[in-house]
Amino acid sequence: MKTLLLNPPSFENFDGGASSRWPATREITSFWYPVWLTYPAGLIRDSRLLDAPSHGVSPQETIQIARDYSFLVLFTSTPGFANDIQLAEKIKTVHPEIKIAFVGPHVSVSPEESLRASLAIDFVVRKEFDYAVTEFAEGKPLDEIAGVSYLENGNVVHNPDRPPMEDLDSLPFAVEIYKRDLDITRYNVPFLKHPFIAFYTARGCPALCTYCLWPQTFAGHRWRPRSVENVVAEIRRDST
């Protein structure tokens, strides 16, 4: 299934900078990589990662790009959820056959509320979504995919949870998708050299920082590192 993995257009003149979903564009410019989307982008054949905020892609341009795909994976957030719903609905209007999955912390915490927000959402994935969206793109029936929630006859169905990934070394390298789909010169963090590359060496965090949403809502508190050899291999791949 031809798949578009989308970090959708964000707010203009916004001072955020906390992640790829909330780039700062007013007093400073700060764009972070949409790292989470790179892994299914590397797993799914005939896929593309579109990072709209950093590449200046408008909602209308995004809608036109989506017309060429059968499956859309949209990484949403609480601040942008209403806008993301509007975008999904417009995409469905021009391309009714497309299947749309919402992923990210917001739908992980509130899957039922998210599904009932719009019929444009075919399903959501709770927490890590690498293999759930890959399995759907490969044709696996929705009711057999762990970690997804969807509407059936007006009722919300929650499939069993998918355990957190243990073998992170089995995932594709994020830097390969950066080279394939993104322009790395568009990413900037004021306190880092430019250009820069960012990717994960582990998932999960044992800390309980009140300002950080990721362990509590998405990746969990158990630290799951990649092997040193695997991380070094990705660094070397980036330098070639």
Describe the structure.
This protein has 240 residues and is an alpha/beta fold. Helices cover 34% and strands 15% of the residues. The protein has helices at 35-43, 52-55, 59-66, 81-94, 105-109, 111-117, 130-137, 174-181, 214-219, 228-239; strands at residues 3-7, 47-51, 71-75, 99-103, 123-125, 148-152, 155-158, 202-203, 224-225. Helix 1 links the parallel strand 1 (3-7) and strand 2 (47-51).
Overview in brief:
With 240 residues, this protein is α/β, with parallel strands linked by helices. It has 10 helices and 9 strands.
* Percent helix range: 25-40%
Q: What structural class is derived from the secondary structure elements?
A: alpha/beta
- Identify the overall geometry: globular
Largest beta-sheet characterization:
7 strands, mixed
> What does the oligomeric state look like here?
single chain
Strand order of the largest sheet: 2-1-3-4-5-6-7
CATH superfamily of the domain at 3-158: Cobalamin-binding domain
The Rg value, from CA coordinates, equals: 17 Å
Order of helices and strands: EHEHHEHEHHEHEEHEHEH
Residue share in β-strands: 15-25%
User: In the CATH hierarchy, what is the class of the domain at 3-158?
Assistant: Alpha Beta
Which second-level CATH architecture of the domain at 3-158 applies? 3-Layer(aba) Sandwich
Mean pLDDT: 93
Count of DSSP H/I helices:
10
Number of strands: 9
> CATH topology of the domain at 3-158, what is it called?
Rossmann fold
Low-confidence stretches: none
Distance between the terminal alpha carbons, to the nearest Å? 30 Å
